[in-house]
Amino acid sequence: MTETSEIEGMALTFTLQGETFAIPVAHVDEIIDPLPVTRAPNADAFAPGLINVRGAIAPFVDLRHRLGMKPAGPCETSRVLVLDLVVSGESTKVAMMADAVDDITETNLSDLEAVPELGVRWPTEYLKGVAKKDGALIILLDVEATFAPTNLN
């Protein structure tokens, strides 16, 4: 990856519990309608099950749990983001539910503001920064930290 692509790129914005989050589009494989989740016995609450995405089995992660939000089921606007991530050195497809998918926006890391320690509802280690767009705040997720397995010590 070149230095330029780290500084400027495109991010997919999505909504969780009324807040707008963003993830670099380079990690987004596809956006699909909600699918049934097969619960895995004794699974961590962050990755409670698996889904079948076009014949490939992908872990289903609960971003709401990771960010300390209240659980919620799918609604009419819910979509599943299928992400291409590197987990424990392996390229892995991971699925997560968003309340809604909003837009693709340009991101520039130099325009990001630090996440204030006070007044933030989410664990700041999962956030890369905050950007302003059309008067609204967009929270850019730190993909590596956010989707890291919890059982790695």
Write up what this structure looks like:
This protein has 153 residues and is mainly β. The chain is built from 3 helices and 11 strands. It has a 6-stranded mixed beta sheet with strand order 3-7-8-6-5-4, with no helix packed on it. It is globular. The two termini are 28 Å apart.
Question: Can you describe this structure in just a few lines?
Answer:
This protein has 153 residues and is mainly beta. It has helices at residues 3-7, 63-66, 143-146; strands spanning 8-16, 19-24, 28-32, 38-39, 49-53, 56-61, 79-87, 90-98, 100-108, 127-133, 136-141.
Characteristic terms for this protein:
single chain; 153 residues; mainly beta; six-stranded mixed sheet; 3 helices; disordered N terminus
Global morphology: globular
Largest pleated sheet:
6 strands, mixed
Cα-based radius of gyration, to the nearest Å: 15 Å
Order of helices and strands: HEEEEEEHEEEEEH
Tell me the total number of β-strands: 11
Number of helices: 3
Strand content: over 45%
